[in-house]
Write a structure and sequence with these properties.
The structure holds 2 protein chains of 2 kinds.
Chain A lengths: L2 E4 L4 E4 L4 E3 L1 E4 L5 E7 L5 E7 L5 E4 L2 E4 L9 E3 L8 E8 L5 E3 L3 E6 L1
Parallel strand pairs in A: 2-12
Antiparallel strand pairs in A: 1-4, 3-9, 5-6, 5-10, 7-8, 8-9, 10-11, 10-12
Chain B lengths: L3 E4 L2 E4 L4 E8 L5 E7 L6 E7 L2 E5 L6 E7 L2 E7 L7 E8 L13 E2 L3 E5 L1
Parallel strand pairs in B: 2-11
Antiparallel strand pairs in B: 1-3, 3-8, 4-5, 4-9, 5-6, 7-8, 9-10, 9-11
Classes of the chains: A mainly beta, B mainly beta.
Chain lengths: 111, 118
């Protein structure tokens, strides 16, 4: 079956620290992979995506590379800001536009 | 414009009330979705409409009744809800719906309606 596993949070970092949030997936076939971000009290916003192996998605300083050999899609940012504090969801999209979401990782960035 | 709007933003209802949640998009998308999100959990898919037809119902109780009056609008009618139905209800849309493997479409989410059932 299809599933996504994310590292458990919360992750607490100081401003300007390097961020990695791990995401691995299990899927039959070739899914598309996404990172969504949810700020407190809001809906989900698309952060980045990749649709095939070795694709790199990037947006707002965040990056993730679709690694088929390790079935991973880790999210990275070189220097986090307080405004990046949010919950980050890794997601896999396969047939019929059904998302398989990870459990979410809460990021707290302290000044 | 990649905006999905939802009304109301907040809703409090009793277990005997009937209310409706509304969702609208003007991106020309032909697939629309309802999700339920409990606190500190990922969204759970409830319904998918593709070309105004219900294509997926994830075994949702009948007290939730979706409706897609046209390609831009999606409603969720609520009746006789239970306190455990309290959650954030998210609407999303994507271009086509019913996608094939490997090239899934991006779903754009609205801000959600926070529902409290007393």
């Amino acid at each position: 079956g299809n599933s996504v596993t994310q590292m458990e949070g919360p992750v607490t970092l100081s401003e300007e620290a390097f961020l990695t949030i791990n995401c691995t997936y299990t899927a039959t076939g070739y899914p598309s992979l996404f990172w969504y971000v949810q700020y407190p009290g809001e809906g989900l916003q698309l952060l980045l995506k990749a649709t095939k192996a070795d694709d790199k998605g990037s947006n707002k300083g965040f990056e993730a590379t679709y690694r088929k050999e390790t079935t991973s899609f880790h999210l990275e940012k070189g220097s986090v800001q307080v405004s990046d504090s949010a919950v980050y969801f890794c997601a896999l999209l396969y047939n019929f536009n059904k998302f398989y979401f990870g459990s979410g990782t809460k990021l707290n960035v302290k000044p | 414009d990649t905006e999905v709007t939802q009304t109301p933003k907040h809703l409090v209802m009793g277990m005997t009330n009937k209310k409706s949640l509304k969702c609208e998009q003007h991106m020309g998308h032909r697939a629309m979705y309802w999700y339920k999100q409990k606190a500190k959990k990922p969204p759970e898919l409830m319904f998918v409409y593709s070309y105004e037809k219900l294509s997926i119902n994830e075994s949702v109780p009948s007290r939730f009744s979706p409706e897609c009056p046209n390609s831009s609008l999606l409603n969720l009618h609520l009746h006789a809800l239970q306190p455990e139905d309290s959650a954030l209800y998210l609407c999303a849309s994507s271009q086509e719906g019913g996608g094939t493997s490997g090239r899934g479409e991006t779903q754009y989410f609205g801000p959600g309606t926070r529902l409290l059932v007393l």
